[in-house]
Amino acid sequence: MNSPAFDHNLYAGCAAQIISHTRELAAKGFTPATAGNFSIRMGPEHAAITISGKDKGHLTEADIMVVNMANEPVATHHRPSAEAALHTHLYRRFPDVGAVLHTHSPTQTIAGLLHADEGRVRLRGFELFKALRGHTTHETEFDLPVVPNSQDMDELTASVDVVLTQPNTWGYLIAGHGLYAWGRDISEARRHLDAFEFLLGCELEMRRLRA
């Protein structure tokens, strides 16, 4: 692998931020078992990302690895999870993306399944749209994309690439799987994730009340 060396001080700072957010999200029930993965861009060449198979509520710096934008491990014996490809895809496609968070809350998982055939969750009239960068009013509609799940990461990445056409989307659902949310830094990505969780919860409750 020919990726240039990375800044270890930057890596340590990114790892600390990831660990802080993963512990909070694990406590909220967003990362059951060892589910979920989280990353921060470390510049044009690298990203710090959680390794697979670890309880996200008990991560240490040793559980955060570095990959290049081809999704190859850098200076580590760890292998990235297959889903790390979805993180690096977002970093390659959107140069302003600085962090990606992937969680598996029941709300996200159920919403993805219920709206899989539509290919989107259409949200209307919510004040909390303003928590999403670039959205300034509740008087609008917002389509959160839903893509079919697949164990083939090339196929899944291609499905995601096709649906990311709406400006300021900031997230998508994988049916029966969970949510990917991102932002210019990890704080913004977390705000977007929390907003989507609330909006999807409201949409599911409205669906239940209409039944």
UniProtKB/TrEMBL annotation:
Pfam families: Aldolase_II. GO terms for molecular function: aldehyde-lyase activity; methylthioribulose 1-phosphate dehydratase activity; zinc ion binding. Coiled coil: none annotated. Pathway: Amino-acid biosynthesis; L-methionine biosynthesis via salvage pathway; L-methionine from S-methyl-5-thio-alpha-D-ribose 1-phosphate: step 2/6. Its EC number is 4.2.1.109. Residues 16-204 form the Class II aldolase/adducin N-terminal domain. Binds 1 zinc ion per subunit. The gene is mtnB. This is Methylthioribulose-1-phosphate dehydratase. It is an enzyme of class 4 (lyase). Zn(2+) binds at H102, H104. NCBIfam families: PRK09220.1, salvage_mtnB. Its cofactor is Zn(2+). GO terms for biological process: L-methionine salvage from methylthioadenosine; pentose catabolic process. One of its GO terms (cellular component) is cytosol. Keywords: Amino-acid biosynthesis, Lyase, Metal-binding, Methionine biosynthesis, Zinc. SMART domains: Aldolase_II. It catalyses: 5-(methylsulfanyl)-D-ribulose 1-phosphate = 5-methylsulfanyl-2,3-dioxopentyl phosphate + H2O. Transmembrane segments: none annotated. Catalyzes the dehydration of methylthioribulose-1-phosphate (MTRu-1-P) into 2,3-diketo-5-methylthiopentyl-1-phosphate (DK-MTP-1-P).
